[in-house]
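Here is an idea for our session: we take a single protein and study its fold together. Which protein we use is up to you, so please pick one and set it down. Once you have written the record down, we can walk along the chain together:
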Amino acid sequence: MRDGAQFEGWTEATANGWGALIAWVAGPANTRRAPAAVRDRHTEVIVMTDGTVVRQPSMLSDEDLASIDDDIDMYLAAAGIPPLPRGYAWFIRRPAQCHTDAVFWSAINQGVQEAAPDAVEPLELRLVVDSVLRALCA
């Protein structure tokens, strides 16, 4: 269900605070959710030793996944946003000019960087993202 494949013209929000913030700011008319399949527990740990990068496969535990969700909730709380219901993959409607997920995320990131290059706090980012999304959808 990656890259909005389930919903044509929609992109899957990243499973982190940033993706959740973008989904919330986009609003109910521009978001959808689908029950998350069994969560992908596969990850990769990158270890650098003596200048050599080693990639090691790893599995996330139930506690790891709960910790990720808790971190997302804390990020949203810092932005003044209630937690999103857990157990879903979240999708955001891409504006017409954003034909791919990469173009959408690039436009968001570039718009935020241009509008407020020093913004780092979730609350200030929330306000900037709102204006960036409005400009993209205009």
Q: What stands out?
A: The mean pLDDT is 87. The first helix runs from residue 17 to 26. The longest strand covers residues 42-49. The radius of gyration is 16 Å.
